[in-house]
Amino acid sequence: MCLIVFAWQVIPGSPLIAAANRDEFYARPSAPAGWWDDHPDIYAGRDLQDGGTWIGITRGGRFAALTNVRAPAERRADAPTRGTLVSDFLSSKQSAAEYIAKVAPDAAAYNGFNLLVGDGRQLIWYSNKGDADARNGQPLTPGIYGISNALLDVCWPKVVRTKAQFASLLCQGAPDETFFEMLTDTTPASDCRLPSTGVGIDRERVLSAVFIASPDYGTRASTLVKIQANGGAVLHERVVQSPQ
Questions:
Q1: Residue predicted with more confidence, 244 or 91
Q2: Confidence check: pLDDT of 244 > 60
Q3: How many distinct structural domains can be found in the chain?
């Protein structure tokens, strides 16, 4: 994932609602969301190159999602795939806190990431790039949050814009379709508000949109997740056709 906005313990009856876009190279093979044959309780898309996933749920209401931290100068080609951090939590029986404690000692081996894990009682944000709170795992208090390719709630233009729109839609009790419309916004940020992540100004402009489209890389899927207070969970995914 490259953008996730989510409400934790804000909406009665739905302790977690999340809307997300997955951005990836078009050439990287993946399967659309579905029940996994080897882990029948997991419902998620699947990375067919290295395994794992970017966002998913279980029949019992577990939730996990991941974004990459954009730091091209620090990227290591030999790092393990980050997608298994999501799938390993979904397939485990550990609490969110127990899982983060397990991941943390080896987290530096991965390229930069943000990880959200929820077990129905806690929702924890963890990153291997950040301060002590990030590296220890931060249990989240009720509120509306956003993550792109920096740390939690860093004020990148698309995070600020999408969080505000997401909050408005939640207050209106808007239908699911409007959340997917929100995720199709192709408006780039103005140059004065662009972050500087080491990819050059032209690339920063392209990547600043909520919905990304470029010749080789872009938004591959949009997802809406709702975890219910009764333990149920639903995940709706819309796969985006890559340019031909």
A1: 91
A2: no
A3: 1
